[in-house]
């Protein structure tokens, strides 16, 4: 059983020590996305699974680890560090900078740095710190990594196609001629996400300590090929120049992968715009539509992607059925297919609001709800009805809502607006007719 305790804290940093009784010590620095929170530090989960004693150094704000705080920390833990046979420093981005910058101070044997900055000063980075320059303050003047800062064998991981990271790695290598470049193609600035995982880090750590470059590159290449994050980045980079290639890959992709769902959600509309009707848009839109997170994106996709106007978005239920208006009953139902008395329901903007309705010779007839929860057309009703709106649940699923209730698709074909919470029956997907 490992024990974690806070052993140092000031206004800039907080430091935890995980005592796993190991012979070697891992010293980690958190990145900008993982600022300090009570009891947590960068790499804790991996350290616990690998039973690695770890000194977890966390910034309390985007401060790039001020020298005064780190020097004070080193003095506090100097005696503790002597108990360990081997010291490895590790971090990503802001943390990647710190593990190189303070490697000599902590007498590191090995440094594993993911996507580090050399500096974020606008006066020395020549435009290669645009994402971080807003965090630069006058107290950071002189923060650049210098030869005297670097100790141990340093491994600098970066995507050589990321212009900013390539610049920073080159500047670090000029200060540390013995450092090793490790390329992680297609990772952009997210090397840590592409190489994430306990097994990956264990193999990377062992390869770096042994200076086994062949094994190190083999591990990294295998990890990046498996990475959903890398698949997303590669597709995003190819989107402008090779939209047809991206579309083909998307239609043949494993739909269970998180990268597939995320790409459809973030880039689906843009992909169809890039294609501008030069691809089988219906099949592609059918693949993308269920994953879009916002109703306005659905309409934008249909209006701007070159999809023929006679194709309308159809709402489908968790039962595999579609929503229809029953002309004989004068009510909305759900079923397998439209025939005669059943008119498919669709969605479109009405008075700047996404509404549910059906197309008629007189125009778009909006659907509303009765007091008993049934659904009908506002145009045909002779009683007070309540607006029916397209909304999204907390989990991002499309729902139909009126007042404070959700529409449920009940087994048997009934649609009823009387649910206070949105679950499976109250969730819908959008497909092209």
Please characterize this protein's 3D structure.
The structure is a single chain. The protein folds into three domains: 3-226, Rossmann fold, CATH 3.40.50.1820; 233-304, no CATH class; 313-432, Trefoil (Acidic Fibroblast Growth Factor, subunit A), CATH 2.80.10. The strands form five sheets. It has an eight-stranded mixed β-sheet with strand order 1-2-4-3-5-6-7-8, sandwiched between helices. Helix content is 30%, strand content 26%. By secondary structure, it is an alpha+beta fold. Residues 293-297 and 299-310 have low confidence and may be disordered.
Number of structural units classed as domains: 3
| Percentage of residues assigned to helices | 25-40%
- Overall outline: elongated
Radius of gyration equals 28 Å
Overall pLDDT score: 86
Tell me what the CATH architecture of the largest domain is: 3-Layer(aba) Sandwich
Name the structural class.
alpha+beta
Continuous helix count: 12
CATH topology (fold) name of the largest domain? Rossmann fold
CATH superfamily of the largest domain: Alpha/Beta hydrolase fold, catalytic domain
Distance between the termini: 58 Å
Order of neighbouring strands in the sheet with most strands: 1-2-4-3-5-6-7-8
Q: Describe the sheet with the most strands.
A: 8 strands, mixed
Strand content: 25-35%
Low-confidence stretches: 293-297, 299-310
Can you identify the CATH class of the largest domain? Alpha Beta
